[in-house]
Amino acid sequence: MNYLFLAAAGVFVFGAIIHxxxxxxxxxxxxxxxxxxxxxxxxxxxxxxxxxxxxxxxVVWLGIAALLALVAxxxxxxxxxxxxxxxxxxxxxxxxxxxxxxxxHLLSWAGSLIAAGLIFFGxxxxx
Length: 127
Description:
By secondary structure, the chain is mainly α. The protein has 4 helices and no strands. It is flat and about 50 Å long.
């Protein structure tokens, strides 16, 4: 077991929690109270997209933490585990984007789903 990788995973989990909670309170909420330019014709969509993008960082950091935790254990089959984690991150980011933007941020959710599909079919021998 590689405890340095596990410690690095812990740093990412801690960072993800702090990033999401503190960033929302100290940055995102005050920022969204100010003047925001419209995105795809809507200030509301601009605010929702900004919040979503902030929290997508948290999802990705949790995915990195999961990968580090897997790599730390030499008995894990990485040919299965790594694509599984990446697939989960892509599906989570697609779901978050789809829900928050109600489908209007097409490149975000559709791109994540396309990547998820490519990962799934690329690793079909592993699943």
